[in-house]
Design a protein that fits this description.
Two copies of one chain form a homodimer.
Chain A: H1 13-20, E1 23-27, E2 32-39, E3 42-50, H2 55-70, E4 79-83, H3 89-106, E5 110-113, H4 115-120, E6 129-135, E7 141-143, E8 146-149, E9 152-155, E10 160-162, H5 164-168, E11 175-178, H6 181-193, E12 197-198, H7 209-220
Parallel strand pairs in A: 1-4, 4-5, 6-11, 11-12
Antiparallel strand pairs in A: 1-2, 2-3, 6-7, 7-10, 8-9
Helix pairs in contact in A: 2-3
Amino acid sequence: MYDGAETFVGVTRLEYRHIAMLVMGIDTSTMQGGVALVSGQGVICDYTLNVKATYSERLLPLIDRALQDAGITVSHVEGFAVALGPGSFTGLRIGLSTAKGLAAAGGQPLVGVSTLEAMAGTLPFCAHQICPILDARKGELHCALFRCERDRLVRLTDDGTVAPDRLFSRIQEPTVFLGDGLMVYQELVQSQLNELALFPPLASRGGRAAAVAELGRRRLVQGHRDDLAHLAPQYLRPSEAELKILGSVAPRAL
Amino acid sequence: MYDGAETFVGVTRLEYRHIAMLVMGIDTSTMQGGVALVSGQGVICDYTLNVKATYSERLLPLIDRALQDAGITVSHVEGFAVALGPGSFTGLRIGLSTAKGLAAAGGQPLVGVSTLEAMAGTLPFCAHQICPILDARKGELHCALFRCERDRLVRLTDDGTVAPDRLFSRIQEPTVFLGDGLMVYQELVQSQLNELALFPPLASRGGRAAAVAELGRRRLVQGHRDDLAHLAPQYLRPSEAELKILGSVAPRAL
């Protein structure tokens, strides 16, 4: 375990962070959420739970377990990554508040990541466009489009909240759908898009805290940190917002 | 929760199993292992832990937690899927013995699945050939080759145990490597195969019990079950065994 001592020979501190940095990932965006510990060696633990219990009941016990099972205390965690949404209002507030509390107490850096981007990141080397969808209620979906280019995940659109028809009109090629939006919309997606709609196995349809940890870790090892005072959940964009397809440059705001 | 009553209207019993069947997956093949509960609705829980503690210490507590967190008892589990290896001799024995004990006590069906196939199944829609590798000690690897064809995982070779050079000589196209063999062999794979070698993000390099549950579940919903008396781990093939590339038909034995 990395104990903060700079005893590694032949590598800079940044390189060492790349090798070792231990990050806790927290995802409370949807009913399927959890806690993970990921270091440069890979996953230490990744606990995913998808039950109706609120995160106020289940998040801290899950964090406790992860630390105990890994044989460490929270002071060994070198950074926190938390899913900012879109997703459940209450879930996101609990996850972010807890992560902020831990980071503030221990002085470790914290970064927020997009829930949809972390979900897309669970399908590395995917041959098709990826569209995570979350049920936004009121007949709408939170969604975004991504594509894998070699070992890189490329974002094609910003996160958006749209009616299903609006999303479907943008799908012109085979696309893999995942996320809890499938619980409500899978049949509609299938019937509207026919052979363009692809669905992963059941085990790969939801978010994983390890993907949140991994995504955040890439920024943390570069020394980035978000401002605890100002980091806020991305609950729900205005319902009139539209999903805009982006050019090959950086994603535009909605 | 499905309580065994046939109260569903308009679906056959087999269709109902497809919809609901709750399966526990157990993976103790490598140091990264765990327990998952997967139903036709998706993942209920998926607990992955990668620490040096033995499975005799950690498996039953993890099963207990999974059941408790899901709010069920073991009698609600409708089938068991267990990873048969290749992998750690002791780990596999503990996982299979525990699964057999639970299945025998409760009368539920049990199926064994290939550890390597379950690992490959964690990369759905992968654009490239997939090669899970596990460290087999003595300078060898457990490995097999797979390919995704639309939403189906196709096995290209049987599971085999070979020297790294032997495996490398078979790799003629971009191939995604995952599994704990990367801890030992990633640099060698990279240096020997150069741009043909691809590696997933850290969060997607190991096995997940949910993938074991999913793979087993497909056989369980068809009514298959393995024979408790004869089901045995696939620890290690004879070291002289060679990885044979298969035709487009069924995999051949080594």
